[in-house]
């Protein structure tokens, strides 16, 4: 069936099917809803049935395709066989033409000549094989001798190693005991030296501890001596005059204060007392113990004065404040060569204010500084540093504070006294609510009294000293005495260790002397071991020479064997070539002699190959016909499935349309269906014409109208639209599926 006929048939089937479905659907709907459902089931069953036919047709098509593929392979194989048989036949014809008596006689003669060549080559191979066998025997003998020489060399090498080990042992025996004894002596002497050094170190520690005890005792004695004079008592008139001046520093109040102060004799009385004990040892003013004693002494003097003045707040002293004072004085006076008073009293640089500001910023607090002549005395108008005994330092502190009170007029304007008696402020600077004093002497001998406001942040109040001078001094002495006792105990232990170490030295010396008398036998053993080693070395050299000789012989035998084996392989290759040539000549004689038989066999094989190709070609054509039929059946089955699916879709739409209408609509639709059935041929022709004129419009009219004033007209339009839908579906809605192989 050609394509044009298939399309026309499909179109007619579409219209007829649509008409039948509409009529049946209307009749069924007019009767009962159940009948409509039955019609839908029938159309769905038709779809399933036609789909089964498609599956069967597809299976038949696949089988036919396989048959065609197999037939094509058979044709290809038969064609190749024909080609091969044709070549064989051509060769047989040529061989037949060459099979003349002359050619046969010539080929037979060539075979005979080649047989002689093969026999000669075979004889050469046999002879060379004998040569190889002899060379192999020589090589085996050389290998055995080389192996034996290698074993002898290994044994000689082992003997050398054994003799070397024996010599080492003998030498070790000769030197071990003496070396051990010498090492013991050296270790003992080293231990004795270390013990002696420890004794010397501990003796120095004892000496230092004794000096510390003496210094602490001096402090205790000095404090005990001055504790009855460690206060400065101000008269009521002085206190009144000082208060008046500090409240109103007028010239009149200054003059009144000066008048009261100049009659004081505190300095003179104390000077006499301190001078009576000028024989005490010299101390270091920067020693922490000395700093502690001096700062506590100064704070006690100041607090007693503040108490007389009517103040309840006191100054404190601490190790932290003393360390800060010593650091400040070194950094801003000693290192900068800053002489606060100068050498004449009038050429001094005064307070280092920049240094005070920098140090205050460093600690984040307020700092005030008082300074005194300290250890400096004036001889002929020039400053001279006094001997730094503890009493001189105590006197300097007392003298400085007393001078600040009673001899502080003039250019100082009583500023030192003001710094002592102010509360919460010093010289007009606020922030002195917790004052701690640090005391240090500069390299010129001048005393610096640094007044810090201690806070939790700068820790200047940490490690505060007890202001009980006598108790503090006694504690210092007790600690120094404990240190001395510990140093003496350590010295005693080190002295004992030294005695033990010296005894060990003597014992090690005795052991070394005893071993020196017993070394003769060890020396003899060493001599014997050396002789044995020399003999072993000689044997080794002999074995080495023999081994090298045998190795040369073995290498020569290996080379000879390789050469004769190469000659044998060449002879064997020549024989193989001669045999191949003989076989080729013999095959030529056979072909010429049997030319008739070979030609007949080739002719028969060729004819059979041609017959087989004819059969295979016929089978291929038959399989191709079956494949074409199966392809056509598959196309028809697929078209049937498409039509069945279209009918099912139309039935569903008609049922939906009829279910949505009232009773009158269904009656009118039934009448239209009857009319459509009666005049089916005319309607079919009309639908086909409309579809051909405008295929797209025909497809669009397949949708049923949903609204309209004339129910009868709407039903008729619905039927016509369904018919057009069926035709449009057949022509355009479903296209033939492409077949695949």
Task: Tag the structure with descriptive keywords.
single chain, four-stranded mixed sheet, two-stranded antiparallel ribbon, 18 helices, 8 strands, disordered N terminus, disordered C terminus
* Low-confidence sequence ranges: 1-30, 672-741
What sequence of helices (H) and strands (E) makes up the elements? Answer: HHHHHHHEHHEEEHHEEEEHHHHHHH
The average pLDDT value, as a whole number, equals 80
> What's the tally of helices?
18
**Adjacency order of strands in the biggest sheet:** 1-7-8-2
Class derived from helix and strand content: mainly alpha
Shape: elongated
- What share of the residues does DSSP label as strand, in percent? under 5%
Q: What is the rounded Rg?
A: 70 Å
Give the fraction of residues assigned to helices. Answer: over 70%
| Quantity of strands, as a count | 8
Terminal CA distance reads 21 Å
- Major sheet characteristics: 4 strands, mixed
Describe the protein's architecture and organization.
By secondary structure, this protein is mostly helical. Helix content is 77%, strand content 5%. It has helices at 3-31, 33-98, 101-226, 236-247, 251-261, 266-275, 288-309, 319-334, 353-363, 390-406, 415-421, 469-516, 520-593, 595-659, 663-678, 680-693, 695-700, 711-733; strands spanning 316-317, 367-372, 376-379, 382-385, 424-426, 429-432, 435-441, 447-453. A hairpin with a 2-residue loop joins β5 (424-426) and β6 (429-432). α1 (3-31) packs parallel to α14, α1 packs across α16 (680-693) and α6 (266-275) runs antiparallel to α10 (390-406). The radius of gyration is 70 Å and the shape is elongated.
């Amino acid at each position: 069936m050609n394509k044009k006929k298939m399309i026309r048939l499909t179109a007619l089937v579409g219209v007829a099917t649509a008409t039948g479905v509409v009529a049946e659907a209307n009749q069924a709907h007019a009767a009962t809803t159940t009948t409509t459902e039955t019609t839908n089931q029938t159309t769905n069953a038709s779809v399933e049935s036609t789909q089964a036919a498609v599956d069967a047709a597809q299976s038949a098509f696949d089988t036919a395709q396989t048959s065609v593929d197999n037939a094509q392979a058979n044709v290809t194989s038969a064609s190749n066989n024909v080609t091969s048989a044709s070549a064989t036949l051509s060769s047989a014809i040529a061989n037949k033409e060459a099979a003349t008596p002359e050619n046969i006689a010539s080929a037979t003669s060539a075979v005979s000549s080649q047989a002689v060549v093969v026999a000669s080559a075979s004889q050469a191979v046999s002879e060379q094989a004998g040569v190889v066998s002899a060379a192999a025997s020589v090589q085996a003998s050389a290998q055995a001798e080389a192996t034996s020489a290698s074993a002898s060399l290994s044994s000689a090498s082992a003997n050398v190693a054994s003799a070397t080990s024996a010599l080492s042992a003998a030498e070790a025996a000769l030197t071990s005991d003496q070396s051990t004894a010498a090492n013991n002596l050296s270790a003992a002497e080293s231990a004795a030296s270390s013990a002696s050094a420890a004794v010397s170190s501990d003796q120095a520690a004892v000496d230092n501890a004794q000096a510390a005890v003496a210094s602490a005792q001096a402090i205790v004695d000095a404090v005990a001596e001055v504790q009855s004079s460690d206060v400065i008592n101000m008269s009521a008139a002085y206190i009144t005059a000082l208060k008046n001046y500090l409240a109103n520093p007028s010239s009149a109040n200054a003059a009144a204060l000066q008048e009261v102060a100049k009659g004081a004799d505190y300095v003179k009385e104390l000077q006499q007392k301190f001078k009576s004990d000028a024989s005490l040892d010299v101390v270091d003013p920067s020693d922490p113990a000395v700093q502690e004693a001096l700062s506590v002494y100064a704070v006690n003097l100041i607090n007693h004065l503040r108490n007389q003045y009517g103040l309840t707040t006191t100054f404190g002293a601490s190790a932290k404040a003393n360390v800060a004072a010593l650091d400040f004085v070194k950094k801003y006076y000693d290192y900068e060569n800053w002489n606060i008073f100068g050498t004449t009293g009038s050429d001094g640089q005064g307070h280092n204010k920049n240094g005070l500001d920098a140090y205050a910023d460093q600690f984040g607090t307020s700092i005030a500084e008082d300074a005194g002549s300290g250890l400096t005395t004036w001889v002929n108008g020039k400053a001279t540093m006094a001997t730094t005994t503890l009493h001189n330092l105590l006197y300097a502190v007392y003298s400085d504070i007393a001078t600040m009170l009673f001899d502080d007029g003039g250019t100082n304007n009583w500023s030192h006294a003001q710094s002592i008696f102010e509360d919460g402020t010093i010289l007009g600077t606020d922030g002195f609510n917790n004052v701690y004093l640090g005391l240090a002497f500069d390299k010129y001998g001048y005393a610096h009294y640094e007044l810090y406001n201690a806070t939790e942040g700068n820790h200047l109040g940490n490690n505060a000293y007890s202001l009980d001078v006598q108790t503090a001094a006694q504690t210092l002495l007790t600690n120094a005495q404990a240190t001395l006792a510990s140093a003496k105990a350590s010295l005693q232990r080190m002295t004992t260790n030294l005695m033990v170490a010296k005894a060990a030295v003597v014992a090690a010396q005795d052991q070394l002397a005893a071993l020196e008398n017993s070394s003769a036998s060890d020396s003899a053993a060493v001599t014997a071991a050396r002789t044995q080693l020399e003999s072993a070395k000689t044997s080794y050299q002999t074995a080495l020479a023999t081994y090298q000789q045998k190795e040369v012989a073995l290498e020569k035998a290996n080379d000879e064997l390789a050469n004769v084996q190469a000659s044998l392989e060449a002879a064997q290759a020549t024989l193989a070539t001669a045999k191949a040539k003989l076989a080729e000549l013999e095959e030529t004689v056979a072909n010429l002699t049997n030319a008739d038989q070979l030609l007949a066999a080739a002719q028969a094989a060729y004819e059979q190959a041609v017959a087989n190709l004819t059969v295979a070609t016929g089978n291929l054509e038959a399989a191709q016909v079956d494949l074409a039929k199966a392809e056509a059946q598959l196309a028809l089955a697929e078209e049937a499935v498409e039509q069945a699916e279209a009918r099912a879709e139309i039935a569903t739409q008609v049922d939906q349309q009829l279910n949505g209408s009232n009773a009158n609509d269904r009656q009118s639709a039934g009448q239209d269906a009857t009319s459509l059935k009666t005049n089916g041929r005319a309607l079919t022709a009309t639908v086909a014409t409309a579809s051909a004129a405008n295929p797209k419009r025909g497809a669009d009219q397949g949708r049923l109208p949903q609204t309209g004033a004339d129910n009868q007209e709407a039903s008729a339009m619905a039927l016509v639209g369904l018919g057009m839908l069926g035709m449009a579906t057949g022509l355009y809605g479903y296209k033939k599926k492409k077949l695949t192989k």
